[in-house]
Amino acid sequence: MIQDDALDSGLGDADDDDFDEAVEAVDAQLPENRYLDRELSWLAFNQRVLELAEDPTLPTLERANFLAIFASNLDEFFMVRVAGLARRILTGLAVPTNVGRAPQEVLADISADAHALQLRHAAVWNDLVRPALSDSGIDVVTWDSLDDGDRETLTEYFQTQVFPVLMPLAVDPAHPFPYISGLSLNLAIRVRNARTGRQEFARLKVPPMLPRFVKVAAGDRVRYLPLEELISNHLGHLFPGMEVLDHHAFRLTRNEDMTIEEDETENLIQALEAELLRRRFGPPIRLEITDDMDDVTLDLLITELDITEQEVYRLPGPLDLRGLFDLSKIDRPDLHYPPHVPKTAVAFQPAEQNGRADLFAAIRSADVLVHHPYESFATSVQAFLEQAARDPHVLAIKQTLYRTSGDSPIVQALIDAAEAGKQVLALVEVKARFDEANNIVWARKLEKAGVHVVYGLVGLKTHCKLALVIREEEGVLRHYSHVGTGNYNPKTSRIYEDFGLFTVDDQVGRDLTRLFNELSGYAIEKKFKRLLVAPLHLRKGLVRLIERERDNAQAGKPARVRIKVNSMVDEQIIDALYRASQAGVKVEVWVRGICSLKPSVPGLSENITVRSILGRYLEHSRIFAFENDGDPQVYIGSADMMHRNLDRRVEALVRVIDPAQLLELSALFDLAMSDGTSSWHLQADGEWIRRSVDADGRPLVDMQDKTMVNVQRRRRARAVR
After folding, report:
1. What family does the entry list (predicted)?
2. How far apart are CA 442 and CA 454, in angstroms?
3. Is 620 annotated in some ligand binding site?
4. Which residue, 519, 384, 380, is CA-closest to 452?
């Protein structure tokens, strides 16, 4: 399908068989136990998130936000990764594992680690963050701590705002055990009939559309009561004539791993909608309960939900700390990170004050590399597409869309362009996990506006971040290209760290034209100049670049590999890095999440260093840099080093060639990998050790804060020039 010809200098495909045989011969000498378990590595990543919540030097409401992020991350891990493993075991399918252990053993280890992490998560809230909030004048209170006046006010709120939307469901011979939706917070209630003395069970769902924390009137302090506690103390209103014996909170996680056989369906959208409906009724995968739940209630839940003891997580309340997302938005600037307003990239600043920048003219002058969120998405990517939509010389716009919002100005720009009579192609990935329903809605909105909407290639997700504008200039068609590392989403662009390259280079323009033709039609184009494209040849291209560094090191030439990704899992890439390390190549890996590579193993990876950085922004960009004997080869793009990215997605990396931009990317790596920068260091046994202070206890450099300063400094320097 897709073949990369970007690596013409000794890295073509003519000698593929010899190259593969040589690699296999070397790999046969590598030890078998050379990978870390990917699932346990993911849990270690979420532990790093939790460590941020534990850090007393961070603003208190940001710590609460990290607790919510931890909870949300773990939910998705169970819904997808754990559920996928369990489903494969249940159906007898092969379970891929890179550590040579039985899947049941992996699930048992996941359960043990996850139990420990959830208990630690609850302790951080109860023992650290909640008291820290109280010290700052924000109290999360209990019903028993309230006075009569507060209770009277809250009872009125319950009667008018909560009671009407509650739906208690009895369980008896006439009422079967109700369906429990995934991730819903529920109360398990036992009541006794005053006339018959018979005990009954009822389930009550805590309404998700109401504020999770109810504000309590106060003077100079802000107080909040968890919604489930308000409801629990008014159960008598729901069961008149019954004696409420006991009540306990519980929460269920369901399998939401989706499987669609695209080659067996005639209509992808209809199949996807049916699968979304099925996902709501996926089998249970985790049951969270409060630690005071009695055995009678627990046994009933285990029996009715058909869940195992291993899948039960007994925790001190409150459950579902995703609710802290709302609490963390309290307007207390002193408890948040200092505000940072993204600046317009120097190249895209208007020539006159209050004027409108001509982005096409800026891109014609030179390639522009924009670093979000330090530099503005709105005045770069968004402005680029909005200018293209209204420019009468623009004939066509082609764009991939993986995740965005339905009210996005990006979507509106495409609609405006189509309504202005331009040719507009939107390649929408409707299979973007957990955004499927939203993507279907706004894909249909685009179609109604006259945009040509396509859904990519059968069996592959289109994950690359590409935009191409065709503009007529003096009778010649010119290609304006954007290749990014992150989604075309204005909202996440403010918290996700990403790069985007704008260029008018003909090679990139022709590459994107060919790639879009393949994605939207039947073209089979095999030549790319400045792109590396998955699924067929991106992995092989990167392996060849790594092998070239290995050859250079053996020849005594300068050699180094630097890779920044979200996840490092692919065994072929990892083995190539091991081979490079054995040859003396210095390898630096900067990874946010999962890493199956073992660094610092004598004879295998003693030249490999792995760092992780987490902070106010989510590190999301992917960078691949190779020393190449003094002629650096550097790529940015959307691909992580995972099987799904390299085998089952359309991904694209673009080569950065501007010397100043190469220096900028190199300086970023220097900062991230410096021992003077706060980061986590991966050990050979899979443990991550946080280094946030020096030997004298002084805080190390915060890379993201430093990058803000560096971007501002470059901005001022360019302005002076």
Report:
1. Belongs to the polyphosphate kinase 1 (PPK1) family.
2. 13
3. yes
4. 519
Three-state DSSP class for residue 81 = helix
Question: Which residues are annotated as catalytic?
Answer: 463
CA 557 to CA 559: how far, in whole Å? 6
The alpha carbon of 614 is separated from its chain's Cα centroid by a whole number of angstroms, namely: 13
Domains in the chain (CATH in brackets) are 24-39+533-720 (3.30.870.10), 138-334 (3.30.1840.10), 346-529 (3.30.870.10)
Q: Which residue has the tokens 């985007």?
A: 500
At residue 656, the pLDDT reads 97
Helical ranges in 218-289 per DSSP H: 227-232, 268-279
Annotated binding residue at 234? Answer: no
CA 291 to chain centre: 31
- The answer to whether 412 and 480 have CB atoms below 8 angstroms apart is no
Q: Are 324 and 68 contacting, i.e. CB atoms less than 8 angstroms apart?
A: yes
Output the CA–CA distances (angstroms, integers) from residue 224 to 161, 208, 221, 490, in the order listed: 16, 17, 10, 31
CA 401 from centroid of its chain's CA atoms: 16
Amino acid letter, residue 67: L
Which tokens sit at 242? 């019954």
Residue ranges of alpha helices (H) inside 488-625 are: 506-520, 538-554, 571-582
Phi, psi (degrees; rounded to nearest 5) at 271: -65, -40
State the SS3 of 443-477. HHHHHHCCCEEECCCCCCEECCEEEEEEEEECCEE
Q: Which residues of the chain fall below pLDDT 70? A: 1-28, 91-100, 173-174, 257-281, 353-354, 404-407, 430-439, 456, 522-526, 714-721
Q: Tell me if 433 is assigned to a ligand binding site.
A: yes
**pLDDT (tens digit per residue) in 96-111:** 556 667 778 888 899 9
CA dihedral 390, 392, 393, 397 (to 10 degrees): 40
- pLDDT score of 505: 96
Alpha helices in 77-167 (DSSP H): 83-91, 103-123, 130-135, 148-157
| 699 close to 57: Cβ distance less than 8 angstroms | yes
CA distance 646 to 63: 35
Backbone Cα Rg of the chain:
28
Annotated binding-site residue? 592: yes
Nearest to 182 by CA among 287, 297, 302: 287
Question: Encoding tokens for residue 427?
Answer: 């390649």
Consult the annotation and say whether 46 binds a ligand: no
Cβ neighbors of 93 (< 8 A, separation 6 or more) are 87
Per the CB < 8 A criterion, the answer to whether 201 and 188 are in contact is yes
Residue of 499, 505, 517 whose CA lies nearest to 398: 517
Q: Which of 554, 541, 537, 543 has its CA nearest to residue 650?
A: 537
Residue found under tokens 């909407």 = 453
Nearest to 618 by CA among 49, 30, 191: 49
Angle between helices 268-279 and 436-448 (to 10 degrees): 150
Read off the pTM: 0.90
Tracing tokens 């009872």 back to the chain, one arrives at 155
Query: What's the pLDDT at 445?
Result: 82
Q: How many CB atoms lie within 10 A of CB 113?
A: 17
Asked whether residue 648 is marked as a ligand-binding residue, the answer is: no
358 DSSP assignment: -
Cα–Cα distance between 297 and 286 in angstroms, integer?
16
DSSP character at residue 5: -
CA atoms within 13 A on the CB side of 694: 10
